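README, section 4: Worked example with a bound small molecule

Sections 1 through 3 covered apo chains. Here we extend the same pipeline to holo records, where the ligand is supplied as SMILES alongside the sequence. The molecule in this example is flavin-adenine dinucleotide. Nothing else about the input changes; the structure line simply encodes the ligand pose together with the chain.
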Amino acid sequence: MTRIVIMGGGPAGYESALVAAQHGADVTVVEAAAMGGACVLYDCVPSKTFIASAGARSNFRNADELGIRTNNTEAAVDLPRVHGRVKGLALAQSADIRARLQREGVRLVTGHAEFCDNQPGLAQHRLAVRTADGTEEVLSADVVLVATGATPRILPGAEPDGERILTWRQIYELRELPEHLTVIGSGVTGAEFASAYTEMGVKVTLVSSRDRVMPHEDADAAAVLEDVFAERGTTVAKHARAERVERTADGVVVHLQDGRKIEASHALMTVGSVPNTSDIGLKRVGVETGPGGFIPVDRVSRTSVPGIYAAGDCTGVMMLASVAAMQGRIAMWHALGEGVSPIKLKTVAANVFTHPEIATVGITQQAIDSGEVPARTIMLPLATNPRAKMEGLRRGFVKLFCRPATGVVVGGVVVAPTASELILPIALAVQNQLTVEHLATTFSVYPSLSGSITEAGRQLMRHDDLD
Ligand SMILES: Cc1cc2nc3c(=O)[nH]c(=O)nc-3n(C[C@H](O)[C@H](O)[C@H](O)COP(=O)(O)OP(=O)(O)OC[C@H]3O[C@@H](n4cnc5c(N)ncnc54)[C@H](O)[C@@H]3O)c2cc1C
Ligand SMILES: NC(=O)c1ccc[n+]([C@@H]2O[C@H](COP(=O)([O-])OP(=O)(O)OC[C@H]3O[C@@H](n4cnc5c(N)ncnc54)[C@H](O)[C@@H]3O)[C@@H](O)[C@H]2O)c1
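The generated complex, written as C-alpha cells:
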C-alpha cells in the first residue's frame, strides 16, 4: 500500500487526501492549525462570509430606487454578530472537512511537519512532526505532497499590531467598524475588502501602487469598479506606494514613498502573500525554491525530486482554492499511477467578490490586444439587458472571445452582481471547446442576465457570417 503524507490541510491538502484515500492509499494529513487550512479559517471563507453581510446592507441602499422605502435610511451593522457568524461558519466548515476525511479513513495529525531525511536522493522520505505540546513523531512516506499554503506578507515599517494596523486575518477581532480604513495594496484582496467596507458604510481609501485598481484583472472591469468607488465616496490613491505606517494616538498615518501622507483610523495591509516554504526542510531533500520562495512544479505537480509533489499557494500557480485543489488531485492521480491530464490553466474560472463581481475565464483581453492570441471579441453592456433594467442595474457587461475562423469560445468576462454564477456557461464552453453558435442557439430564460451571454454568442456569429 502506498504511504502518502500530506503537509497542510487546506484545499490542496484535503482534496488530495480524499482522492488518495479513494484509490486505496495509506494517507496521513499533517496540519499545523485546523482542517480546511488558511482558506477556510482565515482567507477565502471568512472574507466571502463578511462580503455576504456587506452585500445585504447594500441591498437596502438600492431598494429605494425600486420603490421600496425602509424605515432606516442607514441600515445598521451589528459587527459582533457579523464577525461571530464569520468565525462560526469557518469553524463549522473546518469541522465538516475533518469529519469527512476521518470517514474516508485518512489519519489526521495536528502539528508542524518538516522533512528530516538524512540526505537527498532517498527513495522514501521522512517527516518530523512537532505537535503543540512538544512531542515529536517521525513519519515515513513513499510519496509526500507539500501543500503548506502562504501567509500575509509583512511590509517592514508597517508591522501589524492587531489593533490599528491589520492583516486581513485580524479584522474579525475588531469590535467596531473603522471610522476611516486605508487599504494598502489594490490586488484582488485589497479590492474585495475596499468594496466590502464601502458597502458596510465605512469611509475607505484604497492605496494602489499602479495607475488603476487590480492591475492583473480585465481593465474594463477594473474601470467599472473604480466608477462605483467614485460614486460611493471611496478614494483610490494612485501611483501610491506605501513606505511605512505610523501608529498615532487615535489612528494611523500612511507614509507614501513620494512624500504624501494619508491619515486614517485603521490600515489594512493587503500587499500579497509569502509561501510557507522556509522552515520545512526542503533543502535537506534537494527541493530548490524559485523566486519569492515558491516551489517550482510541472503540470502534474511534480517537484524536481522524485516522490515529492507540491500543490496550492506554496507553488505560486494561480493562487486560488480551485486551482490548489486540482493541483493536489492531479498529484495524487499521478503518484498512484492513474491516468491523468496535466492541469489546464486556460480553463480556470475566477471571480473577484467586489460589488459588482468580476468573473473571468480563459484568454484575457490583454492577450488579445497585444496580438498574442488572435480572437474576435464582443462586449455587451448590461444596461441593454431587460432583466438588468428591471433590477435597476446600470453597470456591468458581458465580454465573449472566440477563435476568428472556427468561432470556438476561448474566454470571457462578466461584470455583474452575480458574475460568479453567470460565468459558468462561458467556462463550460471554453472547457469543452463549444462555439459561439452553440451559445447562440441555447435557450436562455427571458428575462435574464444570462440572456446577454447567448446574445453575445449571436453577435459574434453575425460577424462570422460577414467574414
Ligand atoms: C483574503 C483572501 C480571499 C480569498 N478568496 C478566494 C476566493 O474567493 N476563491 C478562491 O478560489 N481563492 C481565494 N483565495 C485564495 C485561497 O485562499 C488560496 O488559494 C487557498 O487557500 C490555497 O490553498 P492551499 O491548500 O494551498 O493553502 P492554505 O489554505 O493556506 O492551507 C495551507 C495549510 O498548511 C498548513 N501548514 C503550513 N505549513 C505547515 C507545516 N509545515 N506542517 C503542517 N501544516 C502546515 C497551514 O496551517 C495551512 O492550514 C483567497 C485568498 C485570500 C488571501
Ligand atoms: N476572489 C478570489 O478568488 C481571491 C481573493 C483574494 C485573493 N485571491 C488570490 O490571492 C492571490 C494574492 O492576491 P492579493 O491581492 O492578496 O495579492 P497581490 O500580490 O496580487 O496584490 C498585492 C498588491 O499590493 C501591491 N503592493 C505591494 N506593496 C505595496 C506597497 N508598499 N504599497 C502599495 N501597494 C503595494 C502590489 O503592487 C499588488 O498590486 C491572487 O492570486 C488572487 O487571485 C483570490
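What to look for in the output: Residues 7-13, 30-33, 37-39, 43-44, 47-48, 112-113, 147-150, 168, 189, 276, 280, 312-313, 319-322, 324, 353 surround flavin-adenine dinucleotide (ligand 1) (CB under 6 Å). The first strand starts at residue 3 and ends at 7.

Section 5 describes how to batch many such records.
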